[in-house]
Every structure is written in C-alpha cells, then in structure tokens.
Amino acid sequence: MRTLISTAFISLDGVVEAPGGEPGYRNSGWTFKDVAFLPEAFELKGREQSEATAMLLGRTSYESFSQVWPDMADFADYKAMPKYVVSTTLAEGDLVTNWGETTILRSLDEVAALKETEGGPIIVHGSAALNRSLSDAGLIDRYHLLVFPLLLGAGKRLFSATDKDTQKLKLVEHEAYANGLQKNVFDVVR
C-alpha cells in the first residue's frame, strides 16, 4: 500500500489558508511576511519532492498551483510526477497541458483505490478541504507539518471539526528552529 502524506505550512492555531500570498485572505502570505526565512527550516520541502512519487490535490489547489508551479525551478521534480486531482466538478478540458500526467479522481473511494496501487509515497499539498475529508476517512498515513509561531484566527484549517474518535499520532521526526518554526512529522497510528 502506498503512503499518503499530508504536508502543510500551518499556524499554531491550525490555519493553512493562503501561506504563499494567495488573494482573498486577510493574512495572506503569512509564511514569508511575518517570520524570518531560514533555509534549514525548509529542508523537509526539498526532501518531499525527491521522495514522493505522485501528488494529490483538491480542485482549488490544483487550479492555483497549476498556474505557477510548472515553470518554477523550485518545483521541477513535481513537473514530471503523476498528479491526481480529487474533484466532482473539474473537467478534462480544465487540466493544464504543461504539468505532466494528471488524472481526475471523483471520490475518496478512488483515492483509497489509488493507495492500493504499486508505487511510492503520494504527497498532498494545500487542499485544506480535501485534507479534512481524507483525515476523516482514515486515508492519511503521515503528516509533515511546518508549524509557524503565529496565531492567525479565522481561516481555513487543516483538521476538521467533525466529532469523531481520538486519532493517535506518533511523532517520528521533529526540530525547532531559531525563527520559531517547528518541524513535526507524525505517523498516523492504526
């Protein structure tokens, strides 16, 4: 079975919305406006590209990333990687042609089936609503979280507010950095 990894820039109060400056959010760009940049704190992001073998996105994140990432040297490894977009509304004609093979999945059952295929880890970037659904369905195996020392208040959150049984996580890697960022890698305990 393939490992499904959720990776996120997250505020201390759980917000993941608009970390890179996406329009429409009051605190947009919080990852670079409010915290000093330390390259070593982002080592995990480079490692993700080299270790992942596929990318899974929700429709909104796909539409945002596909306009920028295909031509960015920082994300070159993702260009050739197979991509899967979970959406009930996206059409084949909506897919970009310069970002490699992309498959539309219409349900979480199709995500579960993808996890059963041969291959390495599948990485989920952005996609707050998809992350909440994947977590509630028990499909996420690991979390890569870069926690920023900020309280953002309102905004899209990584974790759902669904009333459910406790889900235990095992901390497998962590580090704190001089700028206040914390790297936390958790495996989901089954």
Automatic annotation (TrEMBL):
Pfam families found in the cross-reference section: RibD_C (PF01872)
SUPFAM superfamilies the UniProt entry points to: Dihydrofolate reductase-like
InterPro entries cross-referenced by the UniProt entry: DHFR-like_dom_sf, RibDG_C, Riboflavin_Biosynth_HTPR
Occurrences of domain Bacterial bifunctional deaminase-reductase C-terminal (ranges): 2-182
Domain of life: Bacteria
Entry protein name: Dihydrofolate reductase family protein
Organism: Streptomyces similanensis
